[in-house]
Amino acid sequence: MKCRVCRGAALIDLRRHNANFCADHFVRFVQSQVGKAIHEFKMFDPEAKILVAVSGGKDSLAIWHILNELGYDADGLYIGLGITDYSDTSAVFARDFAVAHSLNLVEVDLDDTYGFNVPQGARAAKRVPCSACGMSKRHIFDRVALDGGYDVLVTGHNLDDEAAVLFGNTMHWQTDYLARQHPVLEAREGFPRKVKPLIRLDEREMAAYCVVVGIDYMLDECPMAAGNTHLRYKDALNLIESGSPGTKAAFVQKFLAQAAPIFADAAQESGVELAPCEHCGALTPSGLCAFCRLTARATGQPVELVPNPRLTS
Ligand code: Q46
Ligand code: ZN
Ligand code: ZN
After folding, report:
1. Which end of the chain is more exposed for a tag (fewer CB within 10 A), N or C?
2. Whose CA is nearest to atom 5 of ligand 1?
3. What are the residue boundaries of the structural domains of the chain, listed by start?
4. Of 130, 139, 141, 144, which is closest to residue 83 (Cα–Cα)?
């Protein structure tokens, strides 16, 4: 097996690209795929002030590393979710990476700041943990990005994540979600710009990138993810991909090129008016935002007493 570029011994074969790469050219390949995504979807300018949502896992640490290698100015944001030992350990990976690469890591602890953790929030709201977790993370991402004056929030969603979400949204014809499924979500009043530069790279490529460049990342999956439908969609897509390499990428890329604009136009016509949350000011369809309602339920406090701090880095 020889590297497609230098003909030296290859380290990895990428069936969907019909190519093998040595370590050096694989690293360049991954970084160039990120560069292409940034350019193709006009994600941000070279001088943008970037905030990367960092979980301690391979994808978020890899994209932080790649942006740094490509010369961008990117801080990390780690959110302590209070998910048993998993959160404690993942925080260590995020902190160690930041120290090793002399990067700035902003930390927000859900319990310290708002008075509850993800398992408590899920129980109180009678929601599955991922729902309470996702809602909390989105709220804190928005808040820290806006308050910190960042131009853009980067998340580490990779091709497999996007394909699984697209698969689920398509299976249930969630047209409102399909309308928003794009590697760039433009900034709106109260919401920062959000982008996904790993859209062209899959899980195996990201894991290999971390190994090759020496990124130490959290290997364990979140214990709350067990039985998650998202994981079942990933398994189904991997089965299809193993027989027909490239199917996942074609599914996502052709959706973005051909179908996404149709759903986006339809959604614009039936757009819901948003107003500031009566408590925290985040835009919401009416009254209190979902995060403030979750916080009130999880802490058992009346909404007026729910913490509403201005987060700063
Ligand atoms: S951390 Fe949170 Fe994930 Fe764990 S509870 Fe679900 S959403 S699985 S990315
Ligand atoms: Zn090579
Ligand atoms: Zn609110």
Report:
1. N
2. 130
3. 41-217+229-271, 273-313
4. 130
**The domain over range 41-217+229-271 is classified in CATH as 3.40.50.150:** no
Cβ of 129 less than 6 Å from ligand 1: yes
Q: How many helices (DSSP H) and strands (DSSP E) are in the chain?
A: 13, 10
- Find the 146 Cα to ligand 1 centroid distance in Å: 23
Rounded to two decimals, the pTM is: 0.94
The span from the CA of 117 to the CA of 190, in Å, is 24
Residue-wise pLDDT tens digits, 254-298: 999 999 999 888 777 666 778 889 998 888 888 899 999 999 999
Handedness of CA 129, 131, 135, 141 (dihedral sign): positive
Radius of gyration of the chain (CA): 20
Verify whether ligand 1 is closer than 6 Å to residue 222 (CB atom): yes
Cross-strand partners of 108? 79
Contact 74, 110 (CB under 8 A): no
Residue 130, ligand 1, Cβ within 6 A:
yes
Checking 297-306 for CB contacts under 8 A at 24+ apart, the result is 297/121, 297/124, 297/125, 298/114, 298/115, 298/116, 298/120, 298/121, 298/123, 298/124, 298/125, 298/132, 299/114, 299/115, 299/116, 300/124, 301/115, 303/279, 304/279, 306/114, 306/115, 306/279
Residues in the chain: 313
Task: Say if CB 254 and CB 163 are below 8 A apart.
Answer: no
